[in-house]
Design a protein that fits this description.
binds ligand AOF; Dihydrofolate Reductase, subunit A; 11 helices; 2 domains; five-stranded mixed beta sheet; alpha/beta; nine-stranded mixed beta sheet; Cytidine Deaminase, domain 2; binds zinc ion
């Protein structure tokens, strides 16, 4: 066990705040921050902005106000030791004469994992890892999920009334929550690599599923699960940047051609029963480098995802109203016969957003990344 000092914690907390600046932009790379400290003073800071650009370490070295030789580097992720789009950070740290590296979490990328730290130690640098590793992991659930499970982190967002109703019996689901909650959803979209919905929601609401209430330079891909390819060729989301991927079990060539001509990409991921295989779909999205998927769908897709064990996190926005028993629910699932059979969750966060309540949950059984 390493003993961490107050200063160690302070500098790593600073590096974590820097890492969070990359929340909307680093995909498919992780969010990483770096602080250089010499004689107790911060002399440089950096964070990874986007894939293909400098990693946090190089940015901090370049931004340093004084020579960095002999400094300690606080980094939220184990420095990389491989040639990706950019050369290894270990070389940059060794070349700059860094004396000590303190990192939060080990890089889950199998090309790096453990070897970055080992490479630095071989070069005579003092290396300590594991400081505030949970906080660093919380910034990168999708990157960790993709590296360790080959699929993205799946976050389901639902806005509902206190009785768990998501839409009026007629289907209207817009404006359940107030503005602060809706802005919060746009933050979730901005951090996501893709926003996923079902064909039912698309046909009912013709949603854009883009980020509009917060500043971002990148729009998420929209993924529409559409078993029978009922996708409307004039869907409003087609006219928005970021791209649309329609996932179907249909093999009707004419229809597929028409949807492609309308501007969407079409992916066939079918099961024997004529339905999209959601588990295979998530693998395919992982192979495309998608780290985090935000599901904004109705009870059918939500229910199937939950029953398939594919949901990693649920974010509920509750508006303080009771809609009544004929409103639509959150998850279409067979009714549980005992409380033990009912899907169980751990509540990890609650927060007021204006008049609405946000509750974050994780399935009790699923492995926490
Ligand atoms: C770091 N610092 O700031 C980041 C790291 O293609 P590249 O060259 O950008 O490499 C991407 C990989 O590097 C990524 O999969 C992850 O393992 C690591 N990301 N490492 O030392 C950083 N963003
Ligand atoms: Zn690197």
């Amino acid at each position: 066990m390493t003993d961490w000092s107050r200063d160690d914690h302070r500098h790593m907390a600073h590096a974590l705040r820097l890492a969070a600046r990359g929340l909307y932009t680093t995909t498919p790379n992780p969010r990483v921050g770096c602080v250089l400290v010499k004689a107790g003073e911060v002399i440089g800071e950096g964070w990874h902005v986007r894939a293909g650009g400098d990693h946090a370490e190089r940015m901090a070295i370049a931004a340093s106000s004084v020579p960095v030789r002999g400094a300690t580097a606080y980094i939220t992720l184990e420095p990389c030791s491989h040639f990706g789009r950019t050369p290894p950070c270990t070389d940059a740290l060794i070349g700059a004469g860094i004396a000590e590296v303190v990192y939060a979490m080990t890089d889950p990328n199998p090309e790096v994992s453990g070897s970055g730290g080992a490479r630095l130690a071989e070069a005579g640098i003092r290396v300590r890892g594991g400081l505030m590793a949970d906080a660093a992991a919380a910034l990168n659930p999708g990157f960790i999920s993709r590296m360790t499970r080959g699929r993205p982190w799946l976050r389901v967002k639902i806005a509902a009334t206190l009785d768990g109703r998501t839409a009026l019996a007629g289907g209207d689901s817009r404006w359940i929550t107030g503005r602060p909650a809706r802005t919060d959803v746009h933050r979730l979209r901005a951090a996501a690599c893709a926003v996923m919905t079902g064909i039912g929601t698309l046909l009912a609401d013709d949603p854009l599923l883009t980020v509009r209430h917060v500043e971002t330079e990148r729009q998420p891909l929209r993924v529409v699960v559409d078993n029978n390819l009922a996708f409307p060729l004039n869907a409003a989301t087609l006219r928005e940047p970021g791209g649309v991927l329609v996932v179907t079990a249909s093999s009707e060539d004419d229809r597929i051609e028409a949807v492609r001509a309308a501007g969407a990409e079409v992916l066939q991921v079918d099961t024997a029963r004529g339905r999209v295989d959601l588990s295979r779909l998530l693998k395919a999205l992982g192979e495309r480098g998608l780290n985090e998927v935000l599901v904004e769908a109705g009870q059918n897709l939500n229910g199937t995802l939950l029953a398939s064990g594919l949901v990693d996190e649920i974010i509920l926005y509750f508006n303080a109203r009771i809609m009544g028993s004929s409103g639509r629910g959150m998850f279409a699932l067979p009714v549980a016969e005992t409380m033990e059979q009912a899907a169980g969750f751990v509540i990890s966060d609650t927060r007021m957003l204006g008049p609405d309540l946000r509750v974050t949950l994780h399935p009790r059984e699923a492995p926490r990344v």
